[in-house]
Amino acid sequence: MNRKAAAPRDAEDLAMHRGTGRMEGLVEPVLFGHRLKVILLFLVVSIFFAVQMLKLKPDASFQNMIPASHAYIANYLKFENELRPLGNVVRIAVENTRGDIYDPAYLETLRKITDEVFYIPGVDRGNLKSLWTANVMWYEVTEEGMTAGHIIPEGLGGSPEKLEQVKTNVVRSGRIGSLVANDHRSAIIMAPLLESDPQTGEKLDYGQLSERIETLIRQKYETGHIKIHITGFAKVVGDLIHGARAITLFFAITFALACALLYAYSRCLRSTAITILCCSLAVIWQMGIVSLLGFGLNPYSILVPFLTFAIGVSHAVQNINTMASEVHNGRSKMEAAKATFRLLFIPGTVALLCDVVGFSTLLVIDIGVIRELGIGASVGVFVIILTKMFLLPVLMSYVGVSPACLRKQERKARSRHRVARALSRVTEPRIARAVAVLALVILGTAWHFSRDLKIGDLDPGAPELRSTSRYNQDNAFTVSHYSTSPDVFVVMVTTKPGECGSYPVAAAVERLQWEMENLDGVESSASLFTGMKKMIAGSNGGNLKWAAITRDRYISNAAHKSLPSELYNNDCSMVPVMLFLSDHKAETLSRVVRAAERFAAEHDSEDARFVLAGGNAGIEAATNIVIKQAEVQMLLLVYGIVALLVWWEFKSWRVTLAVMLPLYVTSVLCEAIMAQLGLGVKVATLPVIALGVGIGVDYGIYIYNRLEHFLERGYTLGNAYFETLKTTGTAIAVTGVMLALGVMTWVFSDIKFQADMGLLLAFMFLWNMIGAIVMLPALVAILMPRAAPRRKVSEAASKAARGFQLSE
């Protein structure tokens, strides 16, 4: 084919997209007229962003993982100092595997560990609790009145009498089941955490904190007869950060897979090298910009560089495919690079803008880590537009394609394309209708199973980690050996200052505790009045008939003063009611929230208002509520805005429907798979749908853009789709496989939510690819039966073609 014969091909493409075509017309002369300057500019910017990238550090904070603006969280933060011992707490259970805790060597080890924890930066030392700390005491009623003391007496030594005294003190303290295991073989050190390191003033580094706990506690003190079990939010995040460090291995595997697939597809070493270079630069730019924005790398956003690289490579496949085709048709390296730029600028830019939109919808979710993931992914796709659309064509104008690539292109041209010819039959009316019916059956079946999808965690322990992880084993030990669950839901009862111990408040709290303790999923409860009743009984000879709330203010005040200050706030205007739950599964939290809200609505008064919610379970309940509300909003936004962009490019609601329907089918299928695999919609899985839709729409845009091109040239729909499959279709198939393989490496991560995201994204990428290749043309045949043959190219296209020929 001579150059003039090939010229109208890009001209027609530009004519169909006049607005974007004018932009392309402005950019192309600058881009290819100053190639060395463009390369130098990209080099300087890349060096700058590489320096910024090196400043990135692991970053995860408690407040960044929760919906900060939700009413529950606002209530929690209002009383954060009082509720800190019930929220962000590390529990260290020290187990004696050879006996009980009443052993001199064990108690000495427990003391040393308590001291070690006390000096770890970030620990709220005033609220640290252990059998050795002064804020844990025993109380007893004697003939002389109330007596109290520390659980570990001074001058403990190792005498049997002293050890027996410790055992008696433990029983008198009422700490069995909370600080001491039910079987007396282990004891817990509770270490509430501050959000900022008091020594540096900076946000607490959970990765460093976890390492210190592992080094100073577990590695130092765990022996043959002493076993350490560590639980708490900070330890979960620390383990996630530690596991995320292995992500470099997965990135290396993805990098190698991308290189291998690109070379196998193109048979061109130079094109593969240039493409990988541009995609690597996109990753460097993305991470550099994220650093400049003040973000760090948390266990969620650390996956974004994977996506940036994979998306860049998948789009660059189209460049290699088009460049090879143009050179094979007789154009020089410069001419072929310009033609590639013209042909891909419009569909590629619109497709990547759809990706940006899909990712940016994550910003509606008021959870810091998800917003950072959305911003990072949007930035990554935006820089791909620059490196893939502008830098890659310029570099390819220098290197061109290899003879081996041209020989492969020649073999493709002589091939009979049996697969493409068979697939092109989906445009036949009878087969198209059959495909549509099959799609409806799949959609209906998927929708049926997706109804079982739940919001929140569906597994005990830390679902972000695998069930065999050390953390989940430690959590299982704590749950099985202690009565007070680590999953604490707190209802804050507010009243007038100084009135937190009054009878109206006591009566309301006691009624709340009674109702909640009879709720499935609540194991026990505790409040200021739980301790007051014991103190009142103790003041009356230990008679259990007196273990009740009282209207006598003098009696209640006397009992009140003897109780720890953590059971009420400084001005006595708030009493926390602690509900210890059997687990933090989605159904349990929903049941507790409904019951607590119903109780508050029925019993709120001037004397006592019931405010939700604190504790780690209360915070997780708020997170589930935000995710449930944001899920529908996010889906409407991502589908609505992406549909508008598709309509803006093709100016047809039928085309928009044909492109969007396969994406919707895939989304519902993904939800069905999540429901059957026991995966809830939560912080880790909610972004998957937005990511899948944003990237999946690329396939449909590239497919229909090339299909429209052949229709405009007068091809029938079947022939037009056959030609589309021979060119763009092959690249789309390679793209889908490449993206799927790129994220499938996450399946081997020690972090379960990364493995879940990898599995779900791989499924969505592959099914979106199948939908674009099979379902989209069938829908075009049904919705646009007169789509072919089209009229001749418009006058604008003819003018553009003549202008192109003159420029040549």
TrEMBL record:
<keyword id="KW-0472">Membrane</keyword>
<feature type="transmembrane region" description="Helical">
    <location>
        <begin position="725"/>
        <end position="748"/>
    </location>
</feature>
<feature type="transmembrane region" description="Helical">
    <location>
        <begin position="341"/>
        <end position="365"/>
    </location>
</feature>
<dbReference type="InterPro" id="IPR000731">
    <property type="entry name" value="SSD"/>
</dbReference>
<feature type="transmembrane region" description="Helical">
    <location>
        <begin position="632"/>
        <end position="650"/>
    </location>
</feature>
<dbReference type="InterPro" id="IPR004869">
    <property type="entry name" value="MMPL_dom"/>
</dbReference>
<feature type="domain" description="SSD">
    <location>
        <begin position="281"/>
        <end position="398"/>
    </location>
</feature>
<feature type="transmembrane region" description="Helical">
    <location>
        <begin position="377"/>
        <end position="406"/>
    </location>
</feature>
<feature type="transmembrane region" description="Helical">
    <location>
        <begin position="683"/>
        <end position="704"/>
    </location>
</feature>
<feature type="transmembrane region" description="Helical">
    <location>
        <begin position="246"/>
        <end position="265"/>
    </location>
</feature>
<feature type="transmembrane region" description="Helical">
    <location>
        <begin position="272"/>
        <end position="294"/>
    </location>
</feature>
<protein>
    <recommendedName>
        <fullName>SSD domain-containing protein</fullName>
    </recommendedName>
</protein>
<keyword id="KW-0812">Transmembrane</keyword>
<feature type="transmembrane region" description="Helical">
    <location>
        <begin position="657"/>
        <end position="677"/>
    </location>
</feature>
<keyword id="KW-1003">Cell membrane</keyword>
<feature type="transmembrane region" description="Helical">
    <location>
        <begin position="431"/>
        <end position="449"/>
    </location>
</feature>
<feature type="transmembrane region" description="Helical">
    <location>
        <begin position="760"/>
        <end position="784"/>
    </location>
</feature>
<dbReference type="GO" id="GO:0005886">
    <property type="term" value="C:plasma membrane"/>
</dbReference>
<feature type="transmembrane region" description="Helical">
    <location>
        <begin position="38"/>
        <end position="56"/>
    </location>
</feature>
<keyword id="KW-1133">Transmembrane helix</keyword>
<dbReference type="InterPro" id="IPR050545">
    <property type="entry name" value="Mycobact_MmpL"/>
</dbReference>
<feature type="transmembrane region" description="Helical">
    <location>
        <begin position="300"/>
        <end position="320"/>
    </location>
</feature>
<dbReference type="Pfam" id="PF03176">
    <property type="entry name" value="MMPL"/>
</dbReference>
